[in-house]
Amino acid sequence: MSTPLVLVVDDEPDLVELVTLTLSRMKLATQSAGDVATAKKLLKSQRFDLCLTDMRLPDGDGLDLLEWMSTQTPGVPCAVITAHGNVESAVRALKLGAFDFVSKPLDLGVLRRIVSTALKVSSAPVAAAAGTERPGGQLIGHAPGMERLRELILRVARSQAPVHISGESGTGKELVARMIHASGPRAEGPFVPVNCGAIPSELMESELFGHKRGSFTGAVADKTGLIPSAEGGTLFLDEVADLPLHMQVKLLRVIQEKAVRPVGEQRETPIDVRILSATHKNLVELVAESKFREDLYYRINVIEIRVPPLRERRNDIRPLAESILTRLQERVGVESLELSPDAWSALETYDFPGNVRELENVLERAVTLSGSRMIESEHIRLRAAPRITGAPPVATAAAAPGESSGALNDQLEHLERDAIVKALEQTRYNKTAAAKLLGVSYRALRYKIQKLEIE
Known about the structure:
This protein is an alpha/beta fold. 43% of the residues lie in helices and 14% in strands. The chain has 17 helices and 18 strands.
């Protein structure tokens, strides 16, 4: 097996020497480049297993090299070296496809962990499909949205960037998180799911970070927190929107500094954890309402994955139902559970506001009610739920053009869009000036731009 080769791109000889010495002790070969042009030549001429690049270079920016590598050498992971505290640059790099980042002055322990994880990615073969059986689970369905979701899971699994998974309740956000973990270099490490809405506010810091014995009444022994227990693996923060504001500040520091401080401890402990998060709530709206910290939003939302609701992939209802029935018949001891044509029709025309989780509950109840192998339409008890926002409106014979609330909303959004675009053009796309011109706050304008999908 050949020795892995790492390219170090930096114009500071002392830093290059420090990194080279550290990597040589890991039995890795290195080459160095002092600028972007030299780095590109080396990357074209031979195969590297990893690239470490500084952000500031004499003839350009580390982000320029990162963008070039994404098209010219897509299989080579690239980690960036940023100035201490420059989180904005780190986030930009991760959005452009950087594997991870390390801050100056270099923490050699963090550097070694990043390099070890990146080499696992570089040497691992790309999975043929994210739909195959794996420890993280399986996505069922072949709707276009699901195919895109599988492709995205494979891409983000090879990175260490924080991922935010959005989607309605019951769509399978935790399953997506488990698949990202199982498809990446941390698959052998722990996957620690945390329901942020289920932990009492007064216990949250101790549960997440851990505590030292005697740090508060009742702390009779040291306790390892949920975040440190995910060391070397993945931490999944489910319903992250339910985090109290004081915990959002502490979580932001954990992400930025890659360290935790247990309650009652004086020093921070470095951690090596990838953070995935999810919520069914609209974080953009919560940020606009000052209920979720803006800086934390941009830090956890480096990459966003949207899980489509079941009503957007109705053709997947049948294979999902068949898979659920297979599991149920093993549990109840009934062979070959079947649905009548009317029962199938009832399922395939329902909106499923509770999505896949509701489908599972409906079928489990139907199996219990039927008491036999055949499930009829009367066994399919579907709740009368209001139509979910975003679903196609039901047309009625009495509705005249322009009278529906949907049409009115469309007209209002059209007027808002025109006003915002004109203000942006008038201020040469300066959002601060455009907000003043429109008489709204900068945050409100940015929320409207995202909501209306104005490029």
